[in-house]
Amino acid sequence: MSAKLYIKKPMPVEAMQFNYTAECWLELGHWMGEHMKTCGKERKPDAVGWLEIMGNPNEDGERELTHVAYEGDYIVKGYDGLFYPMTQSEFNSKYYEYKYFDGKLNE
Q1: Coil, strand, or helix at residue 50?
Q2: What is the enclosing helix (H) or strand (E) of 74?
Q3: Distance of alpha carbon 106 from the chain centroid
Q4: pLDDT tens track of the chain, all 107 residues?
Q5: Rounded to an integer, what distance in angstroms lies between the CA atom of residue 98 and that of residue 79?
Q6: 57, 78 in Cβ contact below 8 A?
Q7: Alpha-carbon Rg of the chain, whole angstroms?
């Protein structure tokens, strides 16, 4: 048996880039709902903001911390409704923005 070549199936995903601003915080909160736990940033000039992402409720109805995103990361909503972070370089290597205008794809 020899190795075969496989191509990843294209799957559209929703995503937002995380920046530590009030506007981004509000948009992420609206979009992610209960999946967004909290975010913060140390009071230092070179500090990087962070965001805690919660999973779906377990059997007891409690959510557990599943991921931490850092400023500049993309938050991706998977086909299963869960959210996870990707670095900007990883995201850009796998996805491009899908734009629709008058029913036609514009790249």
Answers
A1: strand
A2: strand 74-77
A3: 23
A4: 887 777 777 778 889 999 988 899 899 999 999 899 888 888 888 899 999 999 887 888 788 888 999 999 999 998 888 899 999 999 999 888 877 655 555 55
A5: 16
A6: no
A7: 17
Residue 70's beta-bridge partner residues?
50
Residue 59, phi then psi, degrees to nearest 5: -60, -30
Of residues 50, 53, 49, 14, the one with CA closest to residue 33 = 53
Which DSSP string do the residues of 24-49 spell out, in sequence order? Answer: HHHHHHHHHGGGEEEEE--SSTT---
The helix/strand/coil state of 91 is helix
Provide the token pair at 88. 């900007």
Full-model pTM: 0.76
